[in-house]
Design goal:
The chain contains 7 helices and 37 strands. The chain is mainly β.
């Protein structure tokens, strides 16, 4: 290597790479050479010129010097190496040592960008009188015609100048990608001024150097270059190694690149089908990792893994319900309470219900009428969702009712209070409501003969769809019964034996056929369900 990337502790202000021919004897002959003009820009140099006795161009700066050693100064001259198609200009330095140095690179003040493409470095760039790179193709032709010496002159930011040399220097042709073939024996005192980069490290002003134990890093930059691992390498102790040689490296095809885990770090692949961890420098992977049916593979707070759905707790692989699906677990409770529940399959989060302790407890109240303060003559979307207060006049919502009654078998209880304060109830062994696609179809059966209300009024509504003031789903083609009775219910033709959502006043009030004391003798109602045992 040329060690172009080694650094001095104080920083460098200039860098010269100079090629020197080891022998001053030319391998070419001929009777005459053409004249060469110095293009350096100095008035003395531009006004001087030389006539050579041979027609050939000089092949390098050493041959330029050999033509007229007493008059050649530093500057730009024309040469033509063996085999190169056309002559070209180079900068010759004749003031160092015995002279005859062909300068191939100069850096002084960062006025020229050296972060270039392959073609730029192949053809050369910059200005011979200032910063430049001669070009790999030209350097290849020059160094393959004789044996050359390499000299590197450097000056630090504090003004200290020094140089190093290599006994031989040659690069190959473009076919071999200008491979550095030889540098020969090194001489110089650069160790006094340089911190040498270790194997695989490069000089850079910005550093983001992770390790196999902790591959994460934060980029920091400084004015002084330092030796750092290049992209794709990590520190392993004192060594800079390819990241895929780290002991906790995962070759993950799914994300298109490998992953190095820090000590104690856990990785889950994008589809959540593999989980790996790094412990004591050893990689362990579980290819059976899968999300629970009640969980999802997603990223939360920049961490991708299996997570439990809302209403469930666990590690995402095992998820248990964190809230009840209904009030059934409160059987035996001694007082009513408001609880958060979330039915299985309900994805909109938990919601509040009243859990009632009547008749052994475990009842979930989905309808309550206590006075006329809340109007129940509402629209489809109102009944689809919740309205009212959970501890007062209330309708749970047909969507929630459908979700509840789809998860297991439920029984129904309806509690009544008459206008004079007496309590009655009706009980059914089976109750469910379909989803919106069925217009919340009612299924109710199994009237309990011990019921005190005196009549099975719900039997006439079994199998009917729900109707509201803006949705006529009854089977009476002559009347829109929900609008007619100022209510919302599961209406059948003319049979309206039970309708607990009517208004408190007017011609048509809350109604239950053959209710004790008269069809309209109802002050309040509660409709509630609980899982069947």
């Amino acid at each position: 290597m040329l060690y172009l990337f080694r650094r001095h502790r104080g920083g460098l202000t200039s860098l010269f790479l100079i090629i020197f021919i080891s022998s001053s004897v030319s391998s070419q002959g001929g009777p005459e050479r053409q004249r060469r003009v110095n293009d350096h820009g100095d008035q003395t140099l531009t006004s001087s010129f030389f006539f050579y006795q041979r027609a050939e161009y000089p092949r390098d700066c050493h041959e330029v010097l050999s033509q007229c050693p007493s008059s050649i100064n530093d500057g730009v001259y024309v040469i033509k190496p063996d085999g190169y198609p056309e002559p070209f200009k180079v900068y010759c330095n004749n003031s160092l040592g015995d002279g005859g140095w062909t300068v191939i690179q100069r850096r002084q003040d960062s006025s020229i960008n050296f972060n270039r493409t392959w073609d730029d470095y192949e053809n050369g760039f910059g200005f011979l009188s200032h910063e430049f790179w001669l070009g790999n193709e030209k350097i290849s032709y020059i160094t393959n015609q004789k044996k050359y010496q390499l000299r590197m002159d450097l000056t630090t930011a504090t003004g200290i100048s020094f140089f190093v040399t290599y006994e031989t220097f040659r690069i190959s042709d473009s076919f071999s990608h200008y491979k550095l073939v030889s540098t020969g024996e090194y001489t110089g005192a650069a160790d006094t001024y340089f911190d040498w980069c270790s194997t695989n490290k490069v000089l850079n002003r910005c550093k983001c150097e992770g390790s196999c134990a902790d591959p994460t890093c934060t980029e920091s930059c400084s004015r002084t270059p330092t030796c750092v691992c290049p992209d794709g390498f990590l520190m392993d102790g004192k060594d800079c190694i390819p990241r895929d040689n780290c002991s906790c490296f995962i070759e993950e095809a799914e994300n298109g690149q490998g992953v190095v885990l820090a000590e104690g770090e856990v990785y889950v692949n994008p589809s959540c089908t593999k989980r790996c961890s790094c412990n004591s420098g050893l990689l362990s992977c579980d290819d059976t990792y899968r999300c629970s049916p009640n969980g999802n593979c997603e990223e939360r707070q920049s961490i991708l893994q299996c997570y439990c759905n809302t209403g469930y707790t666990g590690d995402g692989v095992e998820c248990t319900q964190s809230t009840s699906v209904d009030c059934g677990r409160l059987r035996g409770a001694t007082s009513d309470s408001i609880q958060n529940i979330q039915p299985a399959g309900w994805t909109d989060g938990p919601f509040q219900v009243t859990c009632d302790v009547t008749d052994g407890g475990g009842w979930l109240v989905f309808q309550r009428r206590v006075d006329s303060s809340v109007d129940f003559f509402l629209y489809w979307d109102d009944y689809k969702d919740t309205f009212g207060d959970v501890d007062g006049n209330f309708w749970l919502g047909n969507d929630k009712l459908a979700a509840l009654t789809s998860q297991t078998q439920y029984e129904l209880r309806i509690d009544f209070v008459s206008k004079s304060g007496e309590h009655y109830y009706a009980k059914y062994s089976s109750f469910s409501v379909g989803n919106e696609a069925t217009n919340y179809l009612l299924s109710v059966s199994g009237y309990d003969s011990s019921s005190t209300v005196g009549y099975d009024a719900m039997d006439y509504h079994n199998g009917q769809e729900f109707s509201t003031r803006d949705r006529d789903n009854d089977d009476n083609s002559n009347y829109h019964l929900a609008r007619y009775y100022k209510s919302a219910w599961w209406y059948a033709y003319y049979y309206y034996y039970g309708d607990l959502n009517r208004r408190y006043t007017g011609s048509y009030k809350i109604y239950w056929y053959n209710f004790p004391g008269g069809h309209y003798n109802i002050r309040s109602t509660e409709m509630k369900i609980r899982p069947r045992t």
